[in-house]
Amino acid sequence: MPAKPLLIVVGGPTASGKTHMGIELARHYGTEVLSADSRQFYREMRIGNARPTSEELEAVPHHFIADRSLRRPLTAGTYAEEALVLLKALFQTHHVAVVVGGSGLYIRSLCRGLDEFPEVTEGAAARVQGLSEEQGLVGLQEELLRLDPDYYRTVDLQNGRRLERALRVCYASGRAYSSFLGRAAPRPFDCVYLQPAVERPVLYSRIDSRVDRMLKEGLEAEVRSLEAFRHLPVLQTVGYQEWWPYFDGEYSKARAIELIKRNSRRYAKRQTTWFREYTPVANVQAAIRLVDEVVGGVDGPRSGRGT
What we know:
Elements: E1 6-10, H1 18-29, E2 33-35, H2 54-59, E3 62-63, H3 76-90, E4 96-100, H4 104-112, H5 122-147, H6 149-152, H7 160-173, E5 190-196, H8 200-217, H9 219-225, H10 243-247, H11 253-274, E6 279-281, H12 284-295, H13 299-302
Helix pairs in contact: 3-4, 5-7, 8-11
């Protein structure tokens, strides 16, 4: 068994089966799950963020699920600080813990620390603001493709704030934003990175079915109940942002639903790129075999169970 505790990281695109795999791994190793889904943190959001069911939450202890209000947004850095405190306590009685989620930046912050960026000059900030005002989202996308094609392939291209942030760094430093990413920070645990293996046609079918299920569960009513907070970044995300123009009379409900499915598929494609270095595993048993190889045998992790 390795000297350091082990954090099993289950990432991957939306609807790929991360929740099920994470729970089954936690049950096998007698441990607990930390969510790394940046929208599941909030009590007010349940349907549109595909929060685990009550049965799933009862199967093993979960953390960072509906434990705060969206009035108190949780940044990636603060998430890492809180999660590290929790893991320090958890690893006192468990040798293994599991983190599950599709928010790659939050996982990276927890497992490696946040990257350090150069100070942004007033000139760089003004240049980006001017570009945004004159050419809008398309202009930001085209400029990022020109200056940093690597980051362009992984970032949420519909998230204007992220595009602006990356371009400010590009302009201020004269370097690609992605060149500042991935600088590892030491952690008192080892990580093994997994993702459920699923073919793209199957994944897209699951996404469409999930959206249909969300609609039956009352997604529209949930979003209407949050309309007073529509300006918050956490609600400028897939599954929520598509409703605002419909509520404003700009297009039909059918169009809103069509966009949710389309944007969910696009988001899954970007997540697939982000998690491309994670090891695909066909099922839970394959994941267990891989983890056991890392820790030195089938009985290794089990001996680390809490009492």
